[in-house]
Amino acid sequence: MCGIVGYIGKREAYPILIKGLKRLEYRGYDSAGVALINKRDDLNVYKTKGKVADLENFCSDKDITGTVGIAHTRWATHGEPSSVNAHPHYSESKNLAIIHNGIIENYAQIKKNLINKGMHFRSDTDTEVLVQLIEYIQVTRKVPLLSAVQMALRQVIGAYAIALLDKREPNQIIAARKASPLVIGIGKDSGEFFLGSDASPIIEYTDQVVYLDDENIAVMRPGEPLKVVDIHNIALNPDVQTIDMNLGQIEKGGFPHFMLKEIFEQPECLKNCMRGRVVSRTVETRAMTDGKKEGPMQSHTEMGVVLSSIVDHRQQILNAHRIIIVACGTSWHAGLIGKQMLETYCRIPVDVEYASEFRYRNPVVTKDDVVIAISQSGETADTLAAIKLAKEKGAFIYGICNAIGSSIARATDTGTYIHVGPEIGVASTKAFTGQVTVLCLLALAVGKEKGTVSDKDYQEITTQLWDIPEKMKEVLKLNNKIADLSRTFTYARNFLYLGRGYSYPVALEGALKLKEISYIHAEGYPAAEMKHGPIALIDSDMPVVVIAPHDAMYEKVLSNIQEIKARDGRVIALVTKGDETISKIADEVIELPKTLECLEPLLATIPLQLLAYHVAVCKGKNVDQPRNLAKSVTVE
Predict the structure, then answer these.
(1) Could you tell me if 178 and 212 are in contact, meaning their C-beta atoms sit under 8 angstroms apart?
(2) Residue whose C-alpha is closest to residue 305's, from 402, 115, 492, 438
(3) Of 173, 214, 371, 561, which has the fewest CB atoms closer than 10 Å, so is most exposed?
């Protein structure tokens, strides 16, 4: 979950590293640090508790010269957030410096062995154990740094993305990864290299990148080609890819926060998600009279869904006996919506599992199952582990993620990118609606191939899905109203979110957003379950958000609202535009454009994102970097 950035070349490294850390700060912001090798071959490490701005202040009077450097922004795993536990970490001799994202599971035993050999430790981190082990091997075996890294990594158990400097080899960075992302940018100038946990610190300088695979080690030296080997020293040919990302996508563009920017990007993001996948064609027919073809030709437009994953892997997917969706957090909520769509339109049983639970039991998975792994970053550790387990049991793996070239994209048999662009805000917004859109497309494509969705439903859903971005724009016009509404509820200590059918996962997602960024306790429930416990909490101090579109569950939800009002609860209702019943009962009403029931989550989630955002802003919270959270959970 930490952010790694590095540079080696002809430019001054420090400005590049600091700018890169700021772009990676969504990955962790407990502490930050930088290591630089100057012209005298001094290895200078500066680090401090706090954010990147605190690091800049700390470095204001330091020697920050040098064209070789690595930097890190931390989300604490081992050892509390502090300047001592911040990265980079020196080796005992201070010849080496390391930064690390991941967890070394057997660090305690390695540390004990090294202490018994006379080595001393400064921090409580597992990362320092790794750099001390590398130096111990380097000294006792009298081997170069690359060989010492290879030997050390063969001993460790866990996940890592690391970068190392050795002041005795000042024109070199060594980087390695296993189960934690690492990307190398190939500079336009010969022998210039950039390093990042993802592409965001790199895109300003180059669009040519190499994604390291598990147990790959990269050696970067100015003026030389990139060298990649594995931990057994087998030479590998790096696969250079062109990334489709621009600088504007990772900047705020005039918005006060990335989260608000990303909420407002959703109409365009969904267009990008559907582009090339939702297609229209003109069909010509003749008018029929008495069963005979007569009259002039008539034409009409038909909409359709084309997914290359279904075209290329038709049999494995269509013949699935069961689908298992594995995901975490917001992606799990999207999976719950996908379950309803897939079961309704494909008639395939679907289970939705928390990836973190799935991997630690002995699930029944067979070669006739399709496992759908959902992750915005494509690097979620628990989801990757779930994929590995399902693969071992013979299942066909389908990935849905946003980050091109990510670990999940490479580990799956096939899949679909959501194409919503970089999501910087820690609280996921556009990734959720992108995931729901892709799951809808998947259900339509599979249902059409299986013949389990009627032509009428197929056409209607596809056409209405294509119209969702324009309807989202209507919902976003409610921003000012929701901002005003939010002030009323800033000081609430608890919230309850209720919904039924497709709206239940939306209630879960709305509650999660409020918890994440405002720190108000909130729970999502199926509305019918309110009477099985949560109703005991309702009083005049308990705001209740009810997702109540005019669908098949409308009358049932109306009864739930009446029960809440009978107990002095304050109701914020999301209703279909033109509603005249709930609008008279609820304390606050947010009207949504009418759409099909299965597509309502795409519209209903936006007011809940805005509500959470504005409540958090009113409370003075750091919306983009909520406490204790990081964007990409690459550790258990």
Answers:
(1) no
(2) 438
(3) 214
pLDDT tens digit string along 392-451?
999 999 999 998 878 898 899 999 999 998 888 889 999 999 999 999 999 999 999 999
% the chain with pLDDT above 70: 94
Q: 576: which residues sit within 8 A by CB, 6+ positions away?
A: 549, 550, 591, 592, 593, 594
Please check the confidence at residue 252 and state whether its pLDDT lies above 80.
no
624 in Cβ contact with 422 (< 8 Å): no
What does DSSP assign to residue 2?
Answer: -
* pLDDT reading at 63 higher than 80: yes
pLDDT band for 528, please (50, 70, 90 cuts).
confident
Task: Note the pLDDT of residue 531.
Answer: 79
CATH number, domain 477-618:
3.40.50.10490
**N residues, the chain:** 636
Tokens 């009810």 — which residue?
Answer: 546
Distance CA(394)–CA(369), nearest Å, equals 8
72 pLDDT above the threshold of 90:
yes
Instruction: Kindly name the residue from 2, 59, 269, 598 that is annotated as catalytic.
Output: 2
CATH annotation of 271-277+303-470: 3.40.50.10490
User: What are the Cα distances from residue 244, in Å, to 207, 405, 421?
Assistant: 7, 11, 9
Within the chain, all domains assigned CATH 3.40.50.10490 are found at 271-277+303-470, 477-618
Q: What angle do CA 85, 87, 91 make, to 5 degrees?
A: 90
Mind listing the pLDDT tens digit for each residue in 596-610?
Answer: 999 999 999 999 999
Q: Is the pLDDT of residue 121 over 90?
A: yes
- In 3-state terms, what secondary structure has residue 573? strand
**Which candidate in 49, 448, 515, 631 is catalytic?**
631
Write phi, then psi, for 31 (nearest 5 degrees): -160, 170
Collapsing DSSP states into helix, strand and coil, what is residue 540?
coil
Per the annotation, the verdict on 440 as an active-site residue is no
Active-site residue, 346 included: no
Residue in 345, 600, 336 with CA at minimum distance from that of residue 459: 345
Residue 307, H or E segment: none
3-250 to CATH, choices 3.30.420.40, 3.10.129.10, 2.60.120.560, 3.60.20.10: 3.60.20.10
Q: What pLDDT was estimated at residue 634? A: 53
Phi and psi at 68, nearest 5°, equal: -130, 130
d(CA 126, CA 466): 49
